UniProtKB/TrEMBL annotation, chains A, B:
<feature type="domain" description="Acetyl-CoA dehydrogenase-like C-terminal">
    <location>
        <begin position="474"/>
        <end position="604"/>
    </location>
</feature>
<keyword id="KW-0560">Oxidoreductase</keyword>
<dbReference type="GO" id="GO:0016627">
    <property type="term" value="F:oxidoreductase activity, acting on the CH-CH group of donors"/>
</dbReference>
<dbReference type="Pfam" id="PF02770">
    <property type="entry name" value="Acyl-CoA_dh_M"/>
</dbReference>
<feature type="domain" description="Acyl-CoA dehydrogenase/oxidase C-terminal">
    <location>
        <begin position="292"/>
        <end position="459"/>
    </location>
</feature>
<keyword id="KW-0285">Flavoprotein</keyword>
<dbReference type="Pfam" id="PF12806">
    <property type="entry name" value="Acyl-CoA_dh_C"/>
</dbReference>
<dbReference type="InterPro" id="IPR025878">
    <property type="entry name" value="Acyl-CoA_dh-like_C_dom"/>
</dbReference>
<dbReference type="InterPro" id="IPR006091">
    <property type="entry name" value="Acyl-CoA_Oxase/DH_mid-dom"/>
</dbReference>
<keyword id="KW-0274">FAD</keyword>
<dbReference type="InterPro" id="IPR052166">
    <property type="entry name" value="Diverse_Acyl-CoA_DH"/>
</dbReference>
<dbReference type="InterPro" id="IPR036250">
    <property type="entry name" value="AcylCo_DH-like_C"/>
</dbReference>
<feature type="domain" description="Acyl-CoA oxidase/dehydrogenase middle">
    <location>
        <begin position="162"/>
        <end position="270"/>
    </location>
</feature>
<protein>
    <submittedName>
        <fullName>Acyl-CoA dehydrogenase</fullName>
    </submittedName>
</protein>
<comment type="similarity">
    <text>Belongs to the acyl-CoA dehydrogenase family.</text>
</comment>
<dbReference type="Pfam" id="PF00441">
    <property type="entry name" value="Acyl-CoA_dh_1"/>
</dbReference>
<dbReference type="InterPro" id="IPR009075">
    <property type="entry name" value="AcylCo_DH/oxidase_C"/>
</dbReference>
């Protein structure tokens, strides 16, 4: 099995050179705990852990998967040990959770966490879910809830889940039928219903599992506004923190999935024996039966959707690094332009370089885009400057669907390139790349499908506050072009970027006009939504990598900067150029298609579209 | 598990209405055996077999895979039975092999075989390889070879393989190191070497396995021109046809692959005990050590590369049909343009329609393109009109890399759409679509990677006979546009097609100019080769589906043609429009990129491209 390698240099470039980490480290939340001097320590040590501790279990997790016996889901022992190692040694949820006083800035946490996700996506899904559940309790729970649950969760003794999906309520979560029945204790409800696709819904990672469950209280309004949120421990937690009785939560099945096989995806039955208790989070239903369960759940969504995009990025990056290493080691064929030369490592072949460069450009542009998202989230969450915080929240809101979808949709073709570079070897499970393809495919589906994200963009984010936030976001793109269009050596690239900017501006006006003529144009909104999202994402990704290239160009010219970094900076410049010349022009094509608004997909008779 | 459905109507449209099957059935080879009246019989019965016999074993093959014990590769019993059923009942190699007097036209054979490949790609790989090996013996073997091997192979008693790849010779087959040592008998050589990625290299389908092995005879020239071809039976075949001693062919390993798990991919050692005998095919090496082994092998390549593209098509088509059926059955969400309406089957959502239509358009355009390829091959092989046969051979030569690569590269994103339509369910192995993704990925690699195909196009096919064949092929595209540009209702589409034609014409000139200035432009040839191939393929696929739509438009207007076919024909018109408006414009984008000829992928320092 090939050795795990990761682009530590690019991560350090982002957090040490490119992003304004000074501003982040100066936020009150972090000021006393973190600074520039921590970056190398954290990232170097994390890289070592990713290589030596996490990656070695990744293939075993894939091969062995989750054993499901007598209602118990059993992970390979190495998985359990590694999970505990991370949580107990301060590499897990405690670094990310709002509940933790020593939580890191997302920008820093995510820089090292990216390597962990790349080393074992299945393992890290448990950490992420536990953090997410803990954050919900921290934000919306009572002091008692926090006292009972948070320490145990953040230290990894208990794991956490989020339970939204049901067999008949997936993308449309408002149709959930799980019910919550009041008891004599106003904060305690009896829960009854079935949830599915619950990551870590049953697993032997810790002594208990804390489920955050959406359910409809009796008399609750229909649709999503009637859903409440409940803490449902697998084993009841007594007031003194000790474990009580099992809480009537049964695992019915563990899904047999295409990938992510060590991530236990459970179908759970709550209250089969009418004996499942949940603790209400937030207020009981109001007089019209409305609850804020989904709104609370969504409070966490920005970060976890960006997290899904980040997961996709980590996987495609790892696949790219494996492919690049294979390409220098594998000897095959002779150079096309010099066939008399001997056999060469395949990286000498132009088409292999094209594939590697395509991966590198997507990976680095998407990574740049994502870390700008984390930067916005850090400011939004912790800045004392409320105006700036609000602006950053708005930008993060816009970036969320772009990152989630563009990264997860791009992972699939990029990992295919990594397989292709490996040739037949890439199709075997002796090499790591095929597993990434299988592991990553879920990411365009969970946490809201690509279409859900696209509609979130065009129907909500582009229109929030009368479209003013999106307008401000778009104006930032214009300003970047304005400020840099004379940048030496990048004239052609800035022109292409400006053309893409004008495309997105045009799309925005077109979509605004659709809303004014819903009868005739309404169906075009969802029909082209994903293509609109792709245009916005490629524009922002291109700008982000361009911004990095501008910095790299300055660094190269600084006298005395170690020449050992020349290749990195020169590579960054080539990468930005590649992205802008070879990937960004898809925006022009897509804009033409969006404007042309062909409706043949709607006109085709359904009987012709469906066979049999 | 969902039921297998397939678009029998589209297959019948192709062979009953669209292609000139009259011409095919009138070829001397087929005249006495096949006619229009056979089409329905064959296709209807084959569909039944695909649904009832083949598809039911497909998932079991994936779950169980190949067991490798004591050097033996064991398939699930149902697999072996089904293979024998097909071969013994006239549904297998005998219908396809040149050796068979009752072989069908490829156009007809492939129409039903497509459903079989869709129902179980792994199973059909054995049939295909057996046919391929038999055809080699038929074309180039002696009468004795034919007598000893063909009947047994075509009846399925013995299976066949083709052994090219070695651990250090994959894409560069000329570097093969397997050796052939002469013996006292001038037709018998001792074979020694290791071959890998051999489909069916060891398997319990029949009593014997006939390997067609490329090896370098002692004193043979270096490179591919020194390779000879040898028949190497797993068990020696005595002159009377009875089985003799085991022939010192050892299976070292069966690969653990991402998909196609019931297709045994073997690593074989020939002559470990210096006791492996091979029968020379064709002439011994000439005075300069040259043999025609690879040329003979390549004689079969056109058909088997188109076959690989066809396999990809079959799989993406099956995935599409499953997705479409799921989309009418799965209830989720409310219409965007009418949110007060109740929940609807997801096919009512515009984005689901977009995904289904994207799949339908690619599937039907690629199918049309592929069947034109089979038509050309039928004429090329069997026509008495030698000029026409030569022209069709030339067109088939051009289409071969287009079909192989465009279909296999397109399968991956299309099957991802089929998964996406299924949502989380598509990620589980309870539904069939994820298996198609895993099974199909190899197709862009085996029988020559996409890059090998792209170079075959730009470096060989575009230039053969001084480029005159490609020029004639391109002129056929121009003529189609000329003849149909006034077609009522398709004005916009014909314009777009013409623009794409002009793009390809421009690319052709550009590439010709590269060859005149190799020093400066040479490296652009491989760098953009795959994009050139995509442009040619999309142009031809668009023309093919457009041609079908023109026929459909005429059929719709025929008085009295059963209105029950209205949906099919109207769907065909929508599909052609979708392809031309939404897919074909990629040709414009790619042409811009090819002309711009950005070299950043070559300029990036290797140290920046490779991590670690």
């Amino acid at each position: 099995m090939a050795e795990f390698v990761y682009d530590l240099r690019d991560l350090k470039f982002i957090v040490k050179e490119w992003l304004d980490m000074e501003e982040i480290f100066n936020l009150e939340k972090f000021r006393d705990n973190y600074g520039f001097e921590d970056i190398d320590l954290v990232l170097d040590e994390a890289y070592k852990i990713a290589r030596e501790v996490i990656f070695p279990i990744n293939k075993e997790g894939d091969r062995t998967g989750v054993k499901f016996e007598n209602g118990r889901a059993i992970l390979p022992p190495a998985y359990v040990e590694t999970y505990r190692f991370l949580q107990e040694n301060g590499w897990g949820s405690a670094n990310e959770s709002l509940a933790s006083e020593t939580a890191m800035p997302l920008t820093l946490y995510r820089a090292y966490n990216e390597m962990f996700m790349a080393a074992s996506p299945a393992l890290m899904s448990y950490v992420k879910l536990t953090t997410g559940a803990a954050n919900l309790i921290y934000r919306f729970g009572t002091d008692k809830d926090r006292r009972l649950f948070l320490d145990k969760m953040l230290s990894g003794k208990w794991s956490g889940t989020m339970c939204l999906t049901e067999p008949n309520a997936g993308s449309d979560v408002g149709d959930a039928t799980t019910r919550a029945y009041p008891t004599d204790d106003p904060r305690i409800y009896k829960i009854k219903g079935t949830k599915m696709f619950i990551t870590g819904g049953e697993v032997n990672l810790g002594e208990n599992i804390i489920h955050m469950v959406l359910a409809r209280p009796e008399g609750g309004a229909p649709g999503s506004r009637g859903l409440g949120l409940y803490i449902v421990p697998k084993i009841w937690v007594n007031d003194d923190g000790s474990l009580g009785e099992p809480n009537d939560v049964t695992c019915i099945a563990i899904e047999n999935k295409m990938g992510l096989k060590a991530s236990a995806t459970a179908m759970l039955s709550f209250g089969e024996n009418d004996n499942c208790r949940g603790i209400l989070v937030g207020d009981p239903p109001d007089s019209e039966g409305r609850s804020k369960g989904l709104a609370m759940m969504f409070h966490m969504m920005n970060e976890s959707r960006i997290g899904t995009g980040h997961n996709a990025l980590a996987q495609m990056a790892a696949a790219y690094y494996f492919a690049a290493r294979y390409a220098v080691e594998r000897i095959q064929g002779r150079p096309f332009t010099n066939p008399k030369a001997g056999r060469v490592p395949i990286i000498k072949h132009e088409d292999i370089r094209r594939m590697l460069m395509e991966m590198k450009a997507q990976v680095e542009a998407i990574r740049a885009m994502i870390f700008r998202g984390f930067y916005y989230l850090d400011i939004a969450e912790h800045s004392g400057d409320r105006e700036k915080a609000a602006l950053c929240r708005g930008y993060a809101d816009i970036l969320t669907p772009l990152i989630k979808t563009y990264a997860s949709e791009t992972a699939w073709p990029m990992i295919a390139l990594a397989i292709q570079v490996h040739g037949g070897a890439g199709y075997t499970e002796e090499y790591p790349v095929s597993q990434y393809a299988r592991d990553a495919k879920i990411l365009s589906i969970w946490e809201g499908t690509s279409f859900i994200q696209a509609m979130d963009l065009v129907n909500r984010k582009m229109r929030m506050k009368d479209g003013s936030i999106f307008a401000a976001w778009l104006d930032e793109r214009r300003k970047f072009i304005e400020q840099n269009k004379e940048a030496r050596g990048f004239g052609a690239e800035m022109q292409k970027l400006e053309k893409a900017y004008r495309c997105v501006a045009e799309i925005r006006e077109l979509y605004a006009s659709y809303y004014e003529n819903m009868a005739e144009k309404g169906e075009l909104i969802p029909l082209y939504a994903l293509r609109v999202l792709t245009c916005c994402a490629q524009l922002f990704a291109a700008e982000s990598i361009m911004d990095q290239a501008l910095l790299a160009a300055r660094k190269i010219e600084e006298p005395g900067t170690g020449h050992h970094d020349y290749a990195y900076y020169a590579g960054k410049i080539s990468t930005a150029k590649y992205f802008i010349h070879n990937i960004l022009p898809h925006v022009y094509l897509l804009t033409d298609l969006i404007k042309e608004a062909d409706r043949s997909a709607l006109e085709c008779p359904e009987e012709a579209l469906v066979i049999g």
